[in-house]
Design a protein that fits this description.
Blueprint (H helix, E strand, L loop, with lengths): L1 H14 L11 E8 L3 E4 L7 E4 L2 E7 L9 E2 L19 E6 L3 E6 L10 E7 L1
Parallel strand pairs: 1-4, 3-8
Antiparallel strand pairs: 1-2, 4-6, 5-7, 7-8
This protein binds copper (II) ion.
Length: 124
């Protein structure tokens, strides 16, 4: 009986894998530097990002020469899939990641994915 009584709560918790970002202002910024260089974290040569669940990544186009977007690689886990708008220079878009896991991301413009790619790790 006691377990039965907990079931609605447990189901609610499971279905609530998504929760409100407690601090949406604090994003890891990923710059879209250029088609040659690809994505870069601030003050880093890496395009690999790590965030806590509920945290966000802000993609910023720093490239005067091309539009870019950021999107999960085809075949990514559906609960981590994302796709930003096509961003022109100085435009940005925030993406909140609520589900723990790893997702590879690319720029989907033209053939940019060959150089513009990275990984987002969402930690518990
Ligand atoms: Cu691009």
């Amino acid at each position: 009986m006691r377990i039965t009584g907990l079931m609605p709560l447990l189901l609610w918790l499971v279905s609530c894998g998504e929760f409100t970002n407690p601090n949406p202002g604090a994003c890891q910024v990923v710059r879209m530097v250029s088609t040659q260089t690809g994505f870069r974290l601030a003050n880093s040569n890496s395009a690999n990002v790590s965030v806590k669940a509920g945290g966000c990544v802000e993609f910023v186009n720093d490239d005067a020469n091309s539009v870019h977007n950021a999107q999960s690689r085809p075949g990514a886990p559906s609960n981590l899939a994302f796709n930003t708008a096509i961003l022109t220079r100085d435009q940005s878009q925030k993406v909140v990641f609520n589900i723990v896991g790893e997702v590879e991301y690319i720029c989907g413009v033209g053939s940019h994915a060959t150089t513009m790619n990275g990984r987002i790790t969402v930690q518990p």
